[in-house]
Amino acid sequence: MYLVTSEQMRYFDHYTIKTLKVPGIVLMDHAGKAVAEAVVKRRAKRVVVACGKGNNGGDGWIAARWLQHGGCSVHVVTVVDPGNLEGDAKLAFDMAGAANVSWNIYQPGDLGGSSIELLVDALLGTGCTRPLAGVYEQIVDEMNHSGVPILAIDVPTGIDASTGEVKGSAIRASETIAMAYEKLGTAVTPGAIYSGHTHVVDIGIKAPLPEGMASYVDPSELRQKWGSRDALSHKGTFGRCGIFVGHMQGAAILAAAGAARTGAGLVVLGTRGSISLAVLPDYVVRQAESPVSALEDCQSIVVGPGLGTDLEPLVGTASVDEMFSSKRGVVDADGLKLLRASNGLRRLNDGWVLTPHPKECANLLGWTTEQVQRQRLTAAMQLAERTGAIVLLKGYRTIIATPAGEIRVNPTGNASLAVGGSGDVLAGVIGSLIAQGLNGFDAASLGAWIHGRAGELAGAALTPISTTASDIVDYISRAIVTFFDGIGARN
Ligand SMILES: NC(=O)C1=CN([C@@H]2O[C@H](COP(=O)(O)OP(=O)(O)OC[C@H]3O[C@@H](n4cnc5c(N)ncnc54)[C@H](OP(=O)(O)O)[C@@H]3O)[C@@H](O)[C@H]2O)[C@@H](O)CC1
Ligand SMILES: [K+]
């Protein structure tokens, strides 16, 4: 499912209106009617619609007209004098006025009626460009504190529809009705947290799709690229995934388990010393003074899980330089420290996937963790651009960014994944997919999806409270079954 920015949405609107000759008020009528239908579905009988100055407010006036038409008790509170409305929004107000929809100009402390069952946020949508202030901030704070559920039209007011950033007050909606496409800013956090459940409605917008649109990770797209295993295949067909084993060996073994369950032909553990933990006979263990040389024949390398300070003596050495320039793989956790170079960040190729959590991302960018969490999309895009690698920024609605600015957002996963070792499993899963021939962007996207779904399934069976990283590994197979639509992996 595509996720669009405000700018792309303006292009879609413009193309539909100018080229396809569909008047803007027709689109707005479809939008307002869809909102009214969503209100009716919620069985809300006493509804207040809060309208702003632009076309988002226009959607609100139309929704109010349709609700009145359907016999609902509806009232509009507007933050602007309707006499100052322009274009389609003015037309929408005229239609509502002719249908005798009641309204008043917002006065602080008066949301327009008692015993309201639902508030509709039609204050600002894709046109919100700055932090809320004045009357917009007052009404948003009052709506949030009212205790009444809020249905947002298109985008909750105060969210940047393109980036998901929230620079001040913003509506906390329980549901958002998105016009034509979900906006990128309501798919990623923090915007996603403010949006509640988002439903997309078709309002008749159509236009040729621009290149490189952002999307949710989509199994139907990735199914064509991964999973087929014909009868003549052998272990060499599915690649060797090498994993560095550092001081904290458990983390590397979890990564190995993730890699094996996701289908690498061979998983190789490269170590300088011996491995003291029990290792399943499924993996090959190789000892060498330089772990880089132990994994020389691997198609992908996972650097980081449990590494500690183990590779630090190798920083800047020819073998690490050689690995980053000639190999592909995953850099996670302590491995990310290898990316710091004397003149900034090391340049990699897009066969490498970096999997930082927000604090690690902040350390690499020289930001604070809070800054990364406020601007997750920007942070992921900047790190990808500066390193030349694919970046997977962990957290709810994991973001996967390419150096060229392509974005995917992972919809799977829940709190079951918030457990030590979960990230190690993810690194192994992605390393395995790279070894099997997927490019870094697809491997990171599919890896995030499978890992997230495995966490959901493990949590459903075992409760999120008691799910461990090993449980996530155990549920990878079932996650892969659901990836293939529940019909099982192709043979
Ligand atoms: N025909 C169409 O195109 C269709 C559009 N549709 C609907 O329209 C919505 C987009 O409408 P829109 O472009 O009018 O923007 P919208 O969000 O209503 O903002 C309006 C104005 O508010 C202002 N403003 C900005 N930030 C502010 C702030 N923080 N605090 C205060 N004011 C602020 C700024 O004006 P300024 O004050 O800068 O002059 C801005 O121009 C879209 O989300 C969808 O719901 C659908 O119905 C389909 C058909
Ligand atoms: K809104």
From TrEMBL:
Pfam families listed in its UniProt record: Carb_kinase (PF01256), YjeF_N (PF03853)
Cofactor, free-text remark: Binds 1 potassium ion per subunit.
EC number: 4.2.1.136, 5.1.99.6
Residues annotated to bind AMP: K394, G395, Y396, R397, T398, G423
Cofactor: K(+); Mg(2+)
Annotated TM spans: none
Binding site residues for (6S)-NADPHX: 55-59, 125-131, 136, 154, 251, 306, 357, 424
Gene3D superfamilies noted in UniProt: 3.40.1190.20, YjeF N-terminal domain
Subunit text: Homotetramer.
Chain's role: Bifunctional enzyme that catalyzes the epimerization of the S- and R-forms of NAD(P)HX and the dehydration of the S-form of NAD(P)HX at the expense of ADP, which is converted to AMP. This allows the repair of both epimers of NAD(P)HX, a damaged form of NAD(P)H that is a result of enzymatic or heat-dependent hydration.
Full protein name: Bifunctional NAD(P)H-hydrate repair enzyme
Taxonomic lineage: Bacteria, Bacillati, Bacillota, Bacilli, Bacillales
